[in-house]
């Protein structure tokens, strides 16, 4: 395990960084050296050529695989449109073009020179000359050979004449006479008969070989030139010795003649030159093949390694640019935390350092902006909170009378959701909400002038008249207006109520006290002076005193009413079913057959917190009012009562309406109907509806009147429901 | 040399490196081998057949010397599991090497024994090959033949390709036309 780990580490170390490229380069150089050494003629690596070549091919395959993988990765990156892949491909293509171009030229020229170099060793003329010299040598030897053959035949004829006993002696003589090196007689089946050798050191004669025997047996004499061990030439002749009788054994004479030393040396030179030339010529083709193969292998390896190196170096060049590109994109999308390690001191390193500086500055700038933005936001929140907690409505409008901001109170006061109308013209508010027409008109008029303004405004709301106090202040740089308005309706109402309360208290105090003595005095006047007066006059007295008493009584009633109005005892709120209460009160009125009442209700009775006694007074006042209105108009009394729960923006309400079919209320009175001393009836104090309003407001509710179509009017009461089902 | 030729050569090299050389031409062969007892010693007589391929003949005609090698080995075979599994020990080998070349001037084929430096000239190639193929009365080392039971004498002959001129060697080593080695043949005992 440990060993394999170490091996893995070494492989990892060798396959990362620049190590594989340099080791590859060294390996290639070594391989190239070995290949060139193996093609040398006298090298020990000669026999290893095939092995080295095989290693080269293996390297080629390995390199091709690695290169293929690199190229595939490059292609995949390009297809996935990864950063920097286009530039890498462009660089690699450029490198590959350069490598292929230069290598092809070098390879082409190398091949050309190789072929020309090897071919230049050979020449037709030289070849012809060599052939001719060989032929010449052969011719020169041929003359001598023919002479010697004839001489041998003569010797054979001589030997034939001699008796068997003298042959040995004659042979020695013949050797000396002929100048031969060796003379021997052989039987045709290869047995030595006798021999004579010039050189005493040689004991055994040279035996002619099988081919010569066969040739002689075919009846043909043999003459030939023989090279010997030390490359000296000899002439060998073999002739059949003519038979003396047909029964005699066939024999042959074998003669070895020396060749003239000078001729022999010349012949040897010609032979060697011819042989060398012919061999070289024959070896030309394999030599070219081997050199071509070696050169091609080295070139291919170099090209592949160079391309691999080109890819590596392209990636190395592009990597910082790729990082920069990604960094720039990140900066563009708002991520300024981009810092790269600057590689080297070249222009790219400078670029990286500049980029780092830029992102640092950008980060600083962004932080400053964020700080100021947060500050601004805090201030805005502060202002919004302040404005939101104001009970006054605050709106801003721009120069073109477009609504810019509105606080919560403004929406409540105007009973319209202004938040939805922001960035829309003020004039459009009145399109859907007619009651705001006066408001918008006021704004449009006032914003034409540049002065600050203040104006009270009456709005016709559904629940009656609303009084607003508006202040307009122009914004700095004439950018628009800020309009502050308060709903002062309640304030005015309270002021009026206070005034009427004071009046009522004074009336009660100042008028009620003398009324009883007046009444008592009138009564005593009648009793005391009636008996004194004649009958004709007594009628008048009674009539006058009664009038005083009745009017004083009426005045008392009126003063009591005022007293009631002024009085405001604490409410005793009890949760009571409203339906039951209404039926109870209606029961009191149903004794009159001419009066008709209808009560339209929800299915369930609704409980509401009220002071029962005070609320009875409310219903009594309203019913009385309605009956009187109908009676005055001489129309049958027909009164509808309804109550129902309604859900509004501000919460749940109980809505009670009491409607008659009378003549209704004149339009100019509808806003002041509930104020004291406002009445359209002949009799009545005008306090009934004022008291109703007072009680309802004490309950936290609201009351208003509206005319019905085609005739009649309706009084509507709204009381807040705390919890509907309680 | 055109690129297609280079590709062709590389392809051939790859192909031949992958597969052992297929038998295409007729190979050398040991026709007969017999051991004879002469006195106390043993001699071997053998006849070998050398059908040269055209490529080899072409080389000879072009004055390239060709080296032939005749190999003999004595093997002691000890049967361990009958005839199915035998322990074989080679304890003697010898090699006879001959160089054959054409002598253009004399138009003779010169057969040169590298071991004995003996030279023979032949007017024809066939006669030279015939002479080459004859092993006559080659004495075997007597020290190994005392107990000749289970002894096997194997013979074979081949071309010594490593003796070829350098440029021819790689081509010859992978070419089937140069792979003419005969199979081992066991000599018969008297």
Explain the overall architecture.
The complex is a heterodimer of chains A (726) and B (190). Chain A has 726 residues and is of the alpha+beta class. Chain A folds into five domains: 19-120 and 279-328, no CATH class; 133-259, PAS domain (Beta-Lactamase), CATH 3.30.450; 390-487, PAS domain (Beta-Lactamase), CATH 3.30.450.20; 494-566; 574-720, Histidine kinase-like ATPase, C-terminal domain (Heat Shock Protein 90), CATH 3.30.565.10. In chain A, 57% of the residues lie in helices and 17% in strands. Chain A has 17 helices and 17 strands. In chain A, the strands form four sheets. In chain A, strands 2-1-5-4-3 form a five-stranded antiparallel sheet, sandwiched between helices. A five-stranded antiparallel sheet of chain A has the order 7-6-10-9-8. Chain A has a five-stranded mixed sheet with strand order 12-14-15-17-16. The longest helix of chain A has 72 residues, at 261-332. Chain B has 190 residues and is α+β, with helices and mostly antiparallel strands. The mean pLDDT of chain B is 84. The longest helix of chain B has 16 residues, at 3-18. Chain B has one domain. Chain B has helices at 3-18, 54-61, 125-132, 168-174; strands at 29-38, 41-49, 66-81, 85-103, 108-113, 119-122, 134-139, 151-159, 185-186. The relative contact order of chain B is 0.24. In chain B, the strands form two sheets. In chain B, strands 6-5-4-3-8-9 form a six-stranded antiparallel sheet. Chain B has a three-stranded antiparallel sheet with strand order 1-2-7. The interface between A and B is large, with 46 and 40 residues.
